[in-house]
Batch of 4 targets.
Target 1
Amino acid sequence: MNVAVIGGGAAGFFASISVKQHHPNARVVLFEKSTKVLSKVKVSGGGRCNVTHSCFDNNVLANNYPRGGRFLKKAFHQFGVNETIDWFGERNVVLKTEKDNRVFPITDSSQTIVDCLIQEFEKLGCILNTKSASTAIERNKDQFQLTINDQKMLFEKVIVATGGSPKKEGFEWLRKLGHKIELPVPSLFTFNMPKNSVSELMGTVAPEARVRLQGGKLESAGPVLITHWGMSGPAVLKLSAFGARELAERNYHFSILISWLAAHSEEEVRELIKSHSTSNRLAQISNFRNEQIPKRLWMYLITKVGIPLDKRWVDVSKKELNKIVNVLCNDSYDVRGKTTFKEEFVTCGGISLNEVNHQTMESKVVAGLYFSGEVLDIDGVTGGFNFQAAWTTGFIAGKLN
Ligand SMILES: Cc1cc2nc3c(=O)[nH]c(=O)nc-3n(C[C@H](O)[C@H](O)[C@H](O)COP(=O)(O)OP(=O)(O)OC[C@H]3O[C@@H](n4cnc5c(N)ncnc54)[C@H](O)[C@@H]3O)c2cc1C
């Protein structure tokens, strides 16, 4: 059996290896358009490669994918996080789990993962062709005719693992096969707030915030990092991923409301401030201490609502107290534009999942054609979820069921 794999990234390598594991006699040829393979793996996770996420409940795991979660939930049963850890372990790659459950090679070097994939690929006898761009696939009786650098080649099965594309034109050759393409838009970006004085707090982290989109239902909780251009951190990135389409439709002009004490309701925050005020009557308002609100942020918020920092709690009026509660629970910011999160950037959109069988990754439109990785309309939040999707879909596609 002649099998072509198109795309030399994480998904393409994993799919090629899986083909040889399941069909040792198959001839597997991987076509990569550039001169280098696995280039995203190499730069991933700040050069450390966040391979997966230590989450063994497939329902919980699936919640980390703004697109494709339901599709993957069923696929994880075949190859999930446990299988990923075992797969690398069996090839002498020891993985470690960090406090936030992200999983990295113990070497802290993405090269370990690159080397492992290349060694396995070569050991199993897969063939690599770089500088080989696929521009067309045609179904030719019971075979596929691939156009690689203007040359026609025949294969019985084809696995497409060409990754995401920021422009819909990048999917045109796949659309021609009859596949519906979900419009690509960026996911995982940070919020720009030009000329907003909050940027003076750059480097400040509020560990337990909640960010809500004003005039929408989207919200996400977690740490917020204030940067010199606006806001970043897990809560912001998560909101950008789950809101990728909605925020693109708003042309990245929108307002957010931040609750800086996400663990507390507005009433609880009111009680907290009142009780602090009662027990610190003669202290200056600037002296408020709370683990969730860094001192610089507190001073900024108080100044923002127009209360002098040297005011004593006993002199704070009811109206001022309301203002404090409001800025802690509903602090409003205008977002004007986005900045791509360089640590982990993915595209939302791609091959519509309605036309792909989740048990096999085979196209429901063209028999014998399979998909794996980010070319599918699947993307996760940060934390190793995107590679897990590549391993899962690559492994299953390679079974060629
Ligand atoms: C800077 C950065 C850091 C990241 N860090 C992490 C991380 O730590 N953890 C995590 O889970 N995710 C991370 N991600 C996301 C993750 O890298 C991707 O989700 C993953 O690489 C997708 O794998 P893929 O094989 O589907 O696509 P890709 O890695 O994009 O590979 C596709 C390959 O196909 C080739 N190709 C495209 N079109 C053609 C064609 N027509 N013919 C031949 N070849 C073609 C491309 O050149 C490319 O080599 C990161 C992303 C970036 C950009």
Target 2
Amino acid sequence: MKPVLFSFWRSLAAWRVRIALNIKGIEYNLSVVNLLEGEQFNDSFTSYNPEHSVPVLQLGNQSFAQSLAIIEYLDEKYKQNPLLPTNLKLRYLCRRFSLISAADSHPVIVPRVRNLLASEYKFNEVQVNDFCRYFMKRGCEAMEGLLEHEEYSSLQTHGPYVLGKNISMADLCLIPHIQGARNYGVDVSNYDRLISVETALYENVEFERAHPKHHPGFVKKQ
Ligand SMILES: N[C@@H](CCC(=O)N[C@@H](CS)C(=O)NCC(=O)O)C(=O)O
């Protein structure tokens, strides 16, 4: 039986895992959890993830949550096309970069936070959007700043990705982050290094196929 990824087209976290599965060459089926309609609170889904969030990956009779934990699990279980470097310092650089989006920016723009801001704190739509744009922009600035830093820039003399020659989990976090930033109106064109890595990554079919535009239920912004 193929693995099932519980996913939603707008989810940046599920997007990371779709790329990982593609890179590992693991075929999977998608099960849509419509976060805007509250399907994350359905009993059937809550039994997989009491956090009421996607992604959840069902592998055999086991289910896994938290995108970075899933990616690291897949990387340890399936050795082909590694997503984390073996070198200790590079593993640290990979995780450090990944966490800018996964731990510091993205968690505050998810539906539960936007809904709380609107319902409890009476933010209007523009204010909610500004709040999200602030954090996504901050993430872009931090990522761009890191890529300019010698620790990372020295790696880019070897290749076009965050860690240079090899695609890594850091790239899987960068791609959804930039698009998420655009969705909230961040002008990302100033982030030369991010754009350059993004452009190089989309030359890989594994990244192209994971894009939300191919996801069931995708809605193009008007
Ligand atoms: N840290 C988690 C974040 C999971 C998460 O919050 N996912 C969002 C979509 S990107 C979600 O399902 N949110 C549901 C909600 O906020 O109600 C991960 O990386 O998997």
Target 3
Amino acid sequence: MEIEYPLQMGMSDPFDQLLQWLQELNFPADRPRITLSYAQSLDGSIALENNAQLVLSNPISNRMTHHLRAHHDAILVGIGTILADDPQLTVRLSEGRDPQPIILDRQLRTPLESRIFQNERKPWIIAGREAPEIRRKMLEAAGATIHTLPTNEDVHIDLKALVGLLAKEGLRRLMVEGGAQIIRSFLEERIVDLIVLTIAPIFVNGLHSMGSGNTTFRSPFPRMDQPHWQMFASDLVLWGELKYGDP
Ligand SMILES: NC(=O)c1ccc[n+]([C@@H]2O[C@H](COP(=O)([O-])OP(=O)(O)OC[C@H]3O[C@@H](n4cnc5c(N)ncnc54)[C@H](OP(=O)(O)O)[C@@H]3O)[C@@H](O)[C@H]2O)c1
């Protein structure tokens, strides 16, 4: 049974403030506007250490995420998240259209039985040039659209090429949900425009939001400009624009 948490005093719709903010923002000229949104514990964990799924959002902040999805044209995760959580990436707790699901999966490891294939909107899978032809055929037969892009020096899908492709496909608002390697790559590439972060009031000491053993970002660090915040019951949701220069 879903627990109903009390909403913040005096608010008819708890998501008005966030969605209003989202609608007032500008778009980059040459690529989709990118929103990074994920949930973490107080110590910055997004999953258990063995990548096992961890429910962090409470029912209200979870609903907020679905409202956010409905305000984006596409939603992106890495293959690590597909393998660990088998997410649907649909809008179920809000009204609105499902965003186009996109998976970054260089070697086409997405399982054919993934729940994402049950969606009305079949996934786009972004593969590297070396992806096995047989997997390409099998995933296409299951309904996926495979886009092939170059890889970068880290042998990951090149994110500049990705945003170019998405712009060409007419997508204007991309929501990036994770996991750790994807969050790090998008921040490292300095292409995250907006961040909506849910912080659950627990300590986990699990998988850190940027993964483990990483190199520090280059300075000036990505910085949230004019942060907004709201409590959704016991979860703190923090949102703002990301800037990459000195304040
Ligand atoms: N709390 C939350 O809000 C939240 C949200 C989402 C996920 N998660 C958690 O995150 C965990 C998964 O995170 P993860 O780090 O293992 O996997 P991930 O970030 O979901 O996926 C990483 C994989 O994506 C592929 N990839 C392709 N291009 C990439 C690029 N440019 N940058 C980075 N990766 C790229 C790589 O595999 P190939 O080289 O094979 O392509 C890479 O190993 C799960 O446990 C899940 O529960 C939590």
Target 4
Amino acid sequence: MNGSVLEAIGTPLVQIDSPEGATIAAKLESFNPGGSAKDRPALAMIEAAERSGALEPGGSVVEPTSGNTGIGLAVVCAARGYDLTIVMPASKSPERRELMRAYGATLELVEGEISEARERASEIAEETGALEMGQFENPANAEAHYRTTAPEIVSQVDGREIDALVATVGTGGTLTGTARRLLETFPEMAVVAIEPEENAVLSTGEAGEDDYQGMGPGFVSDLLDVELIDSIETVALPRAEEECRRLARTEGILVGQSGGAASVAARRVAERLARPELECPEPPQIDLFAEEAATTDGGDEAYDDCPLVVTVFPDSGERYLSTGLFD
Ligand SMILES: Cc1ncc(COP(=O)(O)O)c(C=O)c1O
């Protein structure tokens, strides 16, 4: 039994449809209590503020966010008894707003994008004394992935070597924290960043316009350690959305746009690394009525040679139903 819902943070790593001669595994972050990867940094940022004394019992928190960090903070603040105000661009999906309200957060919508939300949150912090978490600069954001996401992956790959980590970039917390920790165990691993094709700041140095929810903030976040990145994949939004529908309909995995982009990019990387001459081992199939637990076939040697690409699906498609994503 867990002492609180916050102890239930943690997600499965699941093999998805992979090209011949390679394996792609995705971390399904929708399994976290607040439904996204952002539960991890939300808890880590609140704990860091508690430890430093910046946040005292019954204190107030304010944060600009395009959604998932707000929901993560709403979960953590509800469980820990803090007052929370979220500033969010009005363009983001209604499900996100309703979820934050359901957890008792106060919501302020602003016209424009995340930069406008950041300005307004700073004003609120100044006016009310509420503590801003600063997810774009706060080291606890990346630290959360260093301390939780990556160690989970290391134990979930069952001794297999990871050849590439493919991760979307918003604040850069997921990529920076996960890559840093995984590189300690797999020093040869390639780190691939994903960004919107129409807003490819990392690849081109220029911001553009796009409608992705959660990734591609249009600037390079302070938190993103660009030195870790070996290459960048850009994915157009219509292609990512098409992949969301494929994942839902053929694999039973419901993800948001950034998860669709992660899947497209991971597939490209896996196709480049694939060694079709190898027979990559299949993971055990579930059999609820089996007398004995299934064991993997293939054996350790095949595992060692078969290229493994790990990616992160940041949230669930349920969060975007009203946008027509799955129509
Ligand atoms: C849906 C979604 N995808 C991707 C990301 C990017 O994650 P990170 O901020 O850790 O770079 C976020 C978070 O901002 C998100 O909410």
